[in-house]
Amino acid sequence: CSRPQKVCLCPFLPVHPLKVSTCLYIIQHPAEESRVLRTVPLLAACLPPDKCKILVGRRFSEDRYPELATVCRNRNTLILYPGAEATNLEEVSVMSSSPSIMIIIDGTWSQAKDIFYKNSLFRLPKQVQLKNNISSQYVIRTQPTNTCLSTLECAAVALAIIEKNKSIQETILRPLQALCSFQLQHGAQIHHSKEHLLKNGLYDKPMPKNKRKLRRMELLVNNVKI
């Protein structure tokens, strides 16, 4: 896990990489590389190297990334990005044979949106989302809503669905749970979602002047899916 011995997460990682048929392509925003508590390294430590490939950048053209372009044109490739055009992953796995490739964007919600909409390659694969309403266990980082998940959590849930093996989710989440536990023991605070803070009158930052951002906050308070 490359962490100090005092907070080593290796005992919580699988002894051997998980055997999965699905290959993940993690499209990582450059800002995530410098985050101390990022979850993608833990995800990669749970999977064989050939099943978890990480590409860092903001723009991905076909000329610079021919392998990625081929992946995006593969009829068995899915991209995990919620929205009106997305199909629930649970329904896709029932209707067809197990997809062999899944693309997941790693970054804040605004960074992920920028990557998705400014790279035409990512609109070639079938767009899917998780209808699973589980709450995030990544409690040491603030999420927009209670059901927003970290990249590792998204991958864990998605792989469990595609591979039809619930234990995959439990195994991948184990190091994340340990990470949060270590951080809380060493002084970190539980971060409630922005949705929770707004609804309970606990949001202590100045309200945004930007009308679009202010509108998004109003939707959060009123339980409107955004």
Overall shape: it is globular
Counted beta strands = 6
**Residue-averaged pLDDT, rounded?**
79
Helical percentage: 25-40%
Fraction in beta strands? 5-15%
How does CATH name the architecture of the largest domain? 3-Layer(aba) Sandwich
* CATH class descriptor name of the largest domain: Alpha Beta
Spell out the helices and strands N to C.
Answer: EHEHEEHEHEHHHH
Number of helices: 8
Biggest sheet architecture: 6 strands, parallel
Decide which structural class fits the backbone.
Answer: alpha/beta
Give the neighbour order of strands across the main sheet.
Answer: 2-1-5-3-6-4
Separation, N- and C-terminal Cα atoms: 35 Å
CATH fold annotation of the largest domain: Alpha/beta knot
Description:
Helix 5 runs antiparallel to helix 6. By secondary structure, the chain is an alpha/beta fold. It is 35% helix and 12% strand. Residues 192-198 have low confidence and may be disordered. The chain has a 6-stranded parallel beta sheet, sandwiched between helices. The chain has 2 domains: 5-185, Alpha/beta knot (3-Layer(aba) Sandwich); 192-222, no CATH class. The two termini are 35 Å apart.
Helix-strand layout with pairing:
Layout: E1 23-28, H1 40-46, E2 52-56, H2 66-73, E3 77-80, E4 87-88, H3 89-95, E5 101-106, H4 109-117, E6 126-129, H5 151-162, H6 166-185, H7 194-199, H8 211-221
Helix pairs in contact: 5-6
InterPro entries: DTW, DTWD2/TAPT
Domain DTW: 1-188
EC number: 2.5.1.25
Record keyword descriptors for this entry.
8 helices, 6-stranded parallel beta sheet, 2 domains, globular, Alpha/beta knot, 226 residues, 12% strand
